[in-house]
Amino acid sequence: MIELYDNMSADSADLCGLILKASGIPFRVRKDSKGWGIWVAARDFSRARHAVDSYFRENRPSDVVDPNLLPEQDHGYAGIWTASLLAAVYAAVLRTADIHAVWNDFGASAWKIMDGEFYRIVTALMLHADAVHLLGNMAGLAVFATAVCHVAGWGAGMLMILAAGAGGNMVNAVMHESGHVSIGASTAVFGAIGILSGYQFLRRRGVPGKKAGAWLPLACGLALLGFLGAGEHVDLAAHLFGFFVGIFIGIGYARAHKAIGPLGQGVCLVLCVVVVIGAWAVGAWLHLI
What domains are defined for the chain? Predict the structure, then answer.
């Protein structure tokens, strides 16, 4: 007899055995230190392989290997920790003598950003108008930031979300070039949605039989943008720009097709913290001199 398959799990061996039995092909199942094996007579080898391959081709088309799929990462509920940080910043701002002065000094003022105060594209993400505004963005980050970090890891994921949010604020400032001011983490929330949409888009594009559905994640992201990102006193442009910047970041991460290890995750997280603290430090220094 000749070995048809080797190193199989017990369940896989049972399934292959059922397929061969239904096809009227004699076989034997053997177990060794590496797993289970299926053995058939040499004269039946080609017929047995065809029977098994035909079964999986007809009954399990979704099991095509995804060449762009990266391994799942340790996310550590990063979105929840980030949401907690937003709450802490909000509480600290409430203790200041003049909340509106903080918004004026650290909000995403379009003309001040264009005048060189780039720290605002980061600090504005951590300011909120009221508790409802804060809670909505906390919920968004808890869900979507955690999802991004599940794909990219806790360090790389948060760095990409920060880049998407800051990038969205930057593009918004360039487009307005006026006294327009915006605050809130919602640009980063929609940046996270964009990252997920872009990542899934490119991932599906590389899978045979799924290219037609590659646009579905982008459509779903736009639907979420319309459902969650519109309303009274909402900066829809910032949400839209954050979303599109996130798409390009997500596509870039998927195209890199390389998971980031623990050391790289740590470096990304440190860089993220340095950017946030540095932005607040620069803003505070500019308003003290």
Answer: 2-63 (3.30.70.1530), 78-286 (1.20.1540.10)
